[in-house]
Amino acid sequence: MVKPYVSVLTATYNRRDYLPRAFESLQNQTCADFEWVVCDDGSTDGTCDLMESLRKEARFELVYLRQNENSGRHFAMNHCARAARGVLVCGLDSDDQLTPDAIAWMKGTWQSLPCEERETLCGIVGQDAVLHTGARVAPPLPIEGMTSSFLDMPFRHGRAEDNHKIIRRECYREFPFPEEHRGAFFPETIGKWYPMGRKYDARYFDHVTILADRQTTSIQRPGKKGLAPRQWRVAALASRMLLEDYFDFFWLRPIKFVNHSARYACYGALTGESAWRQLRQLRGWVRRAVYLASLPIGACWYARERFARDGR
User: What are the per-10-residue average pLDDT scores of the chain (312 residues)?
Assistant: First the structure.
């Protein structure tokens, strides 16, 4: 069997009503040199039957994987990555769509780079646009095709982290999503892209490759009722990881670190962890000083979360 050039990975859980939209965007691709690898994270809404139906219609290879229990998006995406066969790998959320020329652009852009450069990069980056309006999420790049890392772009250049990453399969597998917590998704920016950015650069382009549904909620975009309780511990852990592992960027974006310190205090308190224990877990007096300075903000966020959850 001929290997596809691009593997499109989707993790899904009870998204039967959204998947046909993602599927249609793949059916409309101008280049069919790809596979769609879908991991069903224990859905109970008939997703399995839907995928079998879509497989019969697909003009591309559709690989359907199923996990018997709902373990979380991070487990499902790692499962997809292990099954992927493409040279390049990209994600597609079940409620998003690829632009019609996305696969053709990914393949053509990557092949246009010199072989020696491709071996040093983790991949290429396209841009997001909002599904319902078509508005770009980020402003145009200062330099088309610029080389940077997933750390330098947000911290040194102040660029939005919402973009579409198309990664060499070997690099994608080298940095799997953390699997310490089942059920709650670990933020991919801190759990996957920042570690990758420590080792590799990527090439950034202004071409829009994905239309993203910005109406859904996540750890990065809590809804009006805040985060679900099962996400509290993971949210605290992710913010602590940022403070511990990437504090060398503090002086470039101090407000970002103060916000994450407040999140660490807020969600740690919601899980029953004392401020004293959190303080002792941080290394160095500067980190601890930032944590203490952020405590009033964290306390306000804690009160907001409790009110959103309990209505009092």
Answer: 91 93 96 96 92 94 91 90 97 94 98 95 96 87 94 92 94 90 76 95 97 60 61 90 95 96 96 94 95 96 84 54
pTM over 0.70: yes
Q: What are the structural domains, with CATH classification, of the chain?
A: 6-212 (3.90.550.10), 229-310 (no CATH)
Listing DSSP states for 115-153 in one string gives: HHHHTTEEEEEEEEEETTT--BSSPPPSSTTEEE-TTHH
H helical segments located in the chain: 19-27, 47-57, 73-83, 102-112, 115-118, 152-155, 169-174, 188, 194-199, 229-245, 254-270, 275-281, 285-310
Quote the DSSP letter at residue 247.
Answer: G
